[in-house]
From TrEMBL:
It comes from the Bacteria. This is TetR family transcriptional regulator. Keywords: DNA-binding, Repressor, Transcription, Transcription regulation. It comes from Pseudacidovorax intermedius. Residues 34-53 bind DNA.
Length: 205
């Protein structure tokens, strides 16, 4: 986690430290992440850690921002990929289900739970969450607009309205993945979401 250059003071690899802290916050939540575990996982002493990042809260903000940056890049890659609108929306929801039911099951989506748990207490978390939703909304809005122009999707609603409706359904699905960790249930829910957006109603394979 540390690097040094001859003749210069030792420096920290900020990205590696924030990634290690992100893993702790993702697993434990903000309140559950102890200073001791953050130090152990980052490889820094408490003084060095807080001198570099200011406080546990500021380190959490950095970790949450990094998590969201990685998440939006992965989701945008799916939504901007090849295939029909329906195929790309299905791929995004399959990606979410795979994460929620995969080896990291129980951790869920750090961005979603940060918004639910911290946004009302921490204005910076609320702002980070707002920016994240806006970025995902922009990618979805473009996709829905493309689908409407091609005739794949109806034009009864605006692309923006459809994008916002899908964001609500998508994150509702992610919450359900925590309380209903049943792949068949979540696939049925996915099929229903796709049908409601006029993107096909056939069952998922």
């Amino acid at each position: 986690m540390q690097k040094s250059t001859p003749g210069r003071p030792r420096e920290f690899d900020d990205t590696a430290v924030v990634e290690a802290a992100m893993d702790v916050f993702w697993s434990r939540g903000y309140e559950g992440a102890s200073a001791q575990e953050l130090c152990e996982r980052t490889g820094l002493g408490r003084g060095s850690l807080y001198n570099a990042f200011g406080s546990k809260q500021k380190l959490y903000h950095r970790a949450l921002t990094l998590y969201q940056e990685q998440g939006i890049q992965a989701q945008a890659q799916i939504l901007n990929g090849r295939g029909t609108v329906r195929e790309r929306l299905q791929a995004l929801m399959d990606w979410g289900i795979a994460h929620d039911l995969g080896p990291a099951r129980g951790r869920g989506c750090m961005a979603l739970f940060a918004a639910l748990d911290r946004a009302g207490k921490d204005p910076e978390v609320a702002e980070i969450a707002r920016v994240y939703v806006q970025r995902l909304e922009q990618v979805l809005c473009h996709l829905f607009a493309v689908g409407q122009r091609s005739g794949e999707l109806p034009s009864v609603r605006s692309a923006l309205e459809m994008a916002r409706g899908f964001v609500g359904s998508y994150y509702g699905l992610r919450v359900l993945g925590q309380s209903m960790p049943d792949r068949g249930f979540l696939r049925d829910a996915t099929a229903g979401i796709l049908a409601s957006f006029g993107a096909g109603d056939e069952r998922l394979g």
